[in-house]
Write a structure and sequence with these properties.
Belongs to the serpin family. It comes from Hypotaenidia okinawae. This is Serpin family B member 12. By secondary structure, the protein is of the alpha/beta class. About 30% of the residues lie in helices and about 25% in strands. It is globular. The protein starts with a helix and ends in a 13-residue tail after the last strand.
Length: about 200
C-alpha cells in the first residue's frame, strides 16, 4: 500500500548486493552483522524459541502427516526461484526443516512457458494427477522472481457414504459471474460441526 518494495524487503529479506539480488534470512543477516563466518549455524537456529509460529507449523505438519492409516494426506511446499537469484544456505535449510519446502530454479524471464510447466508438473505429481494445471498461461509473468507453491492432497472414505443415485447436476460457482454445471453428491442428515477462530 505505502511502500511495497520496502514491505517485500522486510518480509522476504530481499536485498540488492553487488548487482545481484539475494534472498536472505534474518539469521544470515544477524550472523554477518556479528562478523561470524557462514556455515557455523546449526539446524536448531531455525527453531529458536522466538519462532513460535514456525515451530507450531512444523509440529502441525509432522502430526498431520503421521496420523493417516485410513486416509492419504500430502502436504507439500516448494519454492521456484528465478535462476540467477542467490539464496543463502541457512534460509534454504530452515525452509526445508520447518516447512519441508524444496528449492527449484526456473527461468521466468527467458523461458516462462517451460517454468510454468515445471511448476504445474510438480503440482500434478504431488496431487496424484488431480490438479494438472494450477497456473494457466498468463498467470505468472516474466517479472516473477519467486513462486511459492503449497499443495494439499487428501483422500479418504466418507464416514457417511453418499448414495450415488442421489447425485445430480447443479451449478458450481467459479466466481461471482461464472458458473459451471457439475455432478454434485447429496445427502440429508444431522451432522456435527464447529467453528475455529
Amino acid at each position: 500500500k505505502n511502500n511495497t518494495a520496502a514491505q517485500i524487503e522486510k518480509v522476504l529479506h530481499v536485498r540488492k548486493t553487488a548487482g545481484r539480488t539475494s534472498l536472505r534470512s534474518d539469521l544470515e543477516t544477524e550472523r554477518e552483522a556479528e562478523g561470524r563466518q557462514e556455515g557455523q549455524s546449526s539446524l536448531s537456529e531455525c527453531n529458536k524459541d522466538g519462532d513460535l509460529n514456525h515451530k507450531a507449523f512444523q509440529a502441525l505438519l509432522l502430526q498431520l502427516q503421521s496420523l493417516g492409516e485410513s486416509y492419504v494426506l500430502t502436504l507439500a511446499n516448494n519454492l521456484f526461484v528465478q535462476q540467477e537469484f542467490e539464496l543463502k544456505q541457512q534460509f534454504l535449510t530452515c525452509t526445508k526443516e520447518l516447512y519441508g519446502a524444496i528449492l527449484q530454479t526456473a527461468d521466468f524471464r527467458h523461458a516462462l512457458e517451460a517454468a510454468t510447466e515445471k511448476i504445474n508438473s510438480w503440482v500434478e505429481s504431488e496431487t496424484q494427477g488431480k490438479i494438472k494445471e494450477l497456473f494457466t498461461p498468463g498467470v505468472i509473468n516474466n517479472d516473477a522472481v519467486l513462486v511459492l507453491v503449497n499443495v494439499i492432497y487428501f483422500k479418504a472414505s466418507w464416514e457417511h457414504k453418499f448414495d450415488e443415485k442421489k447425485t445430480v447436476q447443479r451449478d458450481f460457482k467459479l466466481n461471482q459471474n461464472e458458473k459451471k454445471p457439475v455432478q454434485m453428491m447429496y445427502q440429508k442428515g444431522l451432522f456435527k460441526f464447529g467453528y475455529i477462530e
